[in-house]
Design goal:
With 239 residues, the protein is mostly beta strands. Helices cover 11% and strands 40% of the residues. The protein is built from one helix and 27 strands. The longest helix has 26 residues.
């Protein structure tokens, strides 16, 4: 009986949150599409920014068993075509921030994002099945970031597919050209705490990136341990 009452209460709370968000976005000329049921520990906080060019649509695609964690912050570009997809069993923990800048964040089955991580997308940010994104991680996607199945990201890892050129002039770095190259982490890659994966990095399956390593652009073969800044292969795993 108590479980049924709690379930009814949660459905009412979720429906109210969706209705309020839909009305808020409509006032900004943006349409809300919800596929599946919204489950959360506490109502997500939403910031809507009058930015972006596109159809003005936000889609929440939430599969069975997925959930949004307490103190989730959603930042939405009102003019963008935003998609947040959580496939079956995927979930966000406490204090996660999702920024949809006209892009997509897609979490595969049973992937989870731990406390205080930040996922920003202006392009296609795809996370495979059973991936762990840990405390304080930042994933910034301008065009494409792909994280393969079974990957694990340790605490305070940064992954980005873009950076601003700094030519040494007096021009502020934010107005200098933005360089963008997609990033890919293959299947079952382990990225240890405090590592940085930069634009253009393509890391093969079963590789391990050591703590504090900086992985630059280029192909990095699978099955290797990478250490240092810039990261270099130091030995083949399992040898």
């Amino acid at each position: 009986m108590i479980s049924a009452v709690n379930g009814f209460r949660d459905r009412i709370r979720s429906a109210l949150w969706v209705a309020l968000l839909r009305a808020r976005l409509r006032r900004r000329g943006t349409r809300l599409v919800v596929e599946g049921s919204v489950r959360f520990d506490g109502p997500p906080r939403v910031r809507v920014l009058d930015r972006g060019e596109g159809p003005g649509r936000t889609t929440l695609r939430l599969a069975r068993g997925s959930s949004l964690g307490r103190d989730l912050e959603l930042v939405l570009w009102s003019g963008g075509d935003n998609v947040l997809e959580l496939r079956e069993g995927a979930y966000l923990q406490r204090g996660v921030r999702i920024e949809l800048r006209g892009g997509t964040v897609s979490l595969g089955p049973h992937a989870h994002v731990r406390d205080s991580a930040v996922l920003k997308s202006q392009g296609e940010l795809t996370v495979g099945r059973e991936v762990t994104i840990s405390f304080g991680d930042v994933i910034a996607c301008t065009e494409r970031v792909e994280i393969g199945d079974l990957c694990g990201l340790g605490e305070r890892v940064t992954v980005t597919d873009s950076d601003h050129t700094h030519d040494g002039s007096d021009d502020h770095y934010l107005v200098q050209p933005l360089r963008i190259t997609p990033v890919r982490l293959g299947r079952n890659v382990l990225v240890s705490a405090n590592a940085v994966v930069l634009r253009g990095a393509d890391v093969g399956d079963n590789a391990v990136i050591g703590a504090g390593a900086v992985v630059g652009a280029g192909r990095h073969d699978g099955g290797q341990l990478y250490l240092g800044a810039p990261a270099k292969p130091v030995r083949r795993l399992g040898a």
